[in-house]
Amino acid sequence: MRATEEDFALIRAMLELPYLIRVLDADIKLIDGSKLRTRAVLLRQLDRLREEARYEMRELRQKLRSRNIKIVKQTRMEDKLHAEYVCRGHHDRMALMWSRVKCDVEEMIEARLAAVTAL
Q1: How far apart are CA 24 and CA 112, in angstroms?
Q2: In whole angstroms, what is the distance from residue 93 CA to residue 73 CA?
Q3: Cα dihedral 35, 37, 40, 42 sign
Q4: pTM of the full structure
Q5: DSSP string spanning 74-117?
Q6: First CA to last CA across the chain, in angstroms?
Q7: Residues paired with residue 95 on neighbouring β-strands, in sequence order
C-alpha cells in the first residue's frame, strides 16, 4: 500500500522538526548571550517550545512505527533535503526545497508562539 496524504504529512513533519529544534537552539544561544532585560522570560518560553517539539518528535516516531513507515536515509543537498523512506513495504523518496522548509519552520514557530500568547 502506497503512502496516503496523512503519511506524507507525518513524514514531512518528521523531516522538518529537527530544523525547528535547531532554530530554537540557535535563538536560545543568541538570547542567552545578550543583555536583554526580558532574557529570562524569553529563554523559558523558547526552552518550552523546544521541549514541546522534542515531545512531538517522539510522538511522530511512534505514529510512523505504528503505520509501518521508516525514514531510511536523509541527504542534505545545496537546494533541498532529500529523504528515502519505506511505507508498508513500498520504497519511495521525498524532496523538500530548503526555502519551503524555512517557511514551514517559521510557520511552526509562529503557531506555537500564538498558542502561548492565547493562554
Answers
A1: 12
A2: 9
A3: negative
A4: 0.89
A5: EEE-SSEEEEEEEETTEEEEEEEEHHHHHHHHHHHHHHHHHHHH
A6: 42
A7: 82
CA-CA distance, 108 to 100, in Å (whole number)? 12
CB atoms within 10 A of CB 17: 18
Residue 55 CB coordination number (10 Å): 10
Interatomic CA distance for residues 15 and 96, integer angstroms: 9
Q: What is the pLDDT of residues 84-105, one digit of tens each?
A: 999 999 999 999 999 999 999 9
Q: For the chain, what is the mean pLDDT?
A: 94
Give the integer Cα–Cα distance in Å for 17 and 9.
12
